[in-house]
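look at this record:
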Amino acid sequence: MAGVTNGGRAGDAGGPGATEESGSAGAVENGGSGAARQSGKDSGSGAAQRGGGTGAARDGGPDAAHRRPDGVDDITVEALGKLSEALETVERIRGHLYSMHQLTGTADFMLDEAVSLLMQGGHTAIAERIERELIGRNVVPGRWTFQLVEEYDDGYYREFRQMEEDARNQLAGGRRHLYEAELKERRRTHGRRGHEAQPG
């Protein structure tokens, strides 16, 4: 599909007239505002902004690993970008899960000190109840947090990552972040220091 024009759908990874909404994949990377912004910062064809034209060549453009393969249309790039964004959200969820795992363990060890202090203060019944009923308790039936982490990693998380990778392999030759790479080409100021396409 050719790059979209000014009448195109917001969020398309298309030509210079497309608009970007703050909720589209990758928009958070450059701190976009809530208002829709014109993505066509640079003049030139959609092909040049994807790194295939002379304008992009003069300014570097994306490296080969982040260039759209021939025959991949805009909607496919957008779909893969949204799938990648969903995976990034799952990665954040996983981080929170590990935080829960570590913090629960920290809290459990803190109870040892609380029990000791209660004993010293003569509050034996309360201390013994905490030691008996709470220290080492399962957080859900039959499971400590390490077991929750393992089940999440081996089930939902592994399947999610595999499906995202399979989709990229089948639709874009395994290339990652095509949507973001094209977004960068549209939003950076070509030829200006600090706006280079690649390091070095």
Notes: The CA atoms of residues 105 and 145 lie 8 Å apart. Helices lie at 46-49, 54-58, 74-120, 124-133, 145-172, 178-187.
